[in-house]
Amino acid sequence: MWRGDTLRGLVRTVRTACGCAVLAVLGAGLDVAAAESAARCDGVAYVVAEMRVAGARQTRRTRGDGRRVLGRMDMVTGVVRPIVPKPGLDALGYDVGRGVLYGVENDPDAPSVLTIDPKDGSAEESVELPQDVYTAGAVAPDGLFYVRGRSTVQVVDVRDKGRVVRSFDVGREVRLDDFAVRPKDGQIFGVDNARGDLVRIDPRSGRVKRFGRLGVGRVTAAFFDRGGMFRVVGRRMASVDVGGLRSGARKVDVRLVGVHPVRPPRLLDGAGCLKAVPRPVNDVPAPKVAPAPKSASAAAKRA
Length: 303
Description:
Blueprint: E1 11-15, E2 21-25, H1 32-39, E3 45-50, E4 68-73, E5 80-85, E6 89-95, E7 100-105, E8 112-116, E9 123-128, E10 136-139, E11 144-148, E12 152-157, E13 163-169, E14 179-181, E15 188-192, E16 197-201, E17 208-213, E18 221-225, E19 230-233, E20 237-240, E21 254-256, E22 266-271, E23 273-274, H2 296-302
Parallel strand pairs: 18-23
Antiparallel strand pairs: 1-2, 3-4, 3-22, 4-5, 6-7, 7-8, 8-9, 10-11, 11-12, 12-13, 14-15, 15-16, 16-17, 18-19, 19-20, 20-21
């Protein structure tokens, strides 16, 4: 019931999650899924946060985590509006193609992938994962769900009965509380909270490339927006243009989006397809001001 209606029409121009124009010709063999993906980019930042919510309960299965909730976060103010209590939920990912969330319920005995309706938070289990504690998740445009344990990333094909198709190791020295998949090329970006570095992870080999420090504190939620900007939440909300990064760069061009330091409830993870970040004020050209009219007396003196 979450797959959506079939697209209709002969020729249609759409805009994908990466901001690229796509000409979709139905029945002509082009990628109709890209057009569906554009329609599912709802612009919402979904987060897992710790906050007191009526109805939350503690259970043995979820390590007594009764304050953990799924919510929607305002990416300007940091305000989180709860959707539903979700004890044990982490490693959140948003599937743009289907308009659903995936996450991991960190049962200490048998962690499992959940398929979550973002409207009301209703969920169903799809597949068990190898025993681990999963803290980061992201869904690629091809439907692969990447979930990071202590050192290993499990790759789950969530559109094919939740099969674990492969895994790769990134090492325990890289501390990732969240990451996101860049829609344009499928590369995984995150922040190593041990050193504060922006990192890029190859989705096949797990090879990690480091860039400069972000300087926004511990990052617990990461997203890509429709303009291709990498958006993170730490002490401040920030956006990073990762398109022209060079490995080993000492400084990364970071735009701080929040006007004040962000003080949300304790965030644990985030996912979503966001709207493109607005242009910062200092990027907007100054308005042109018409010169003041010359007085008649001044004109007469010059005459």
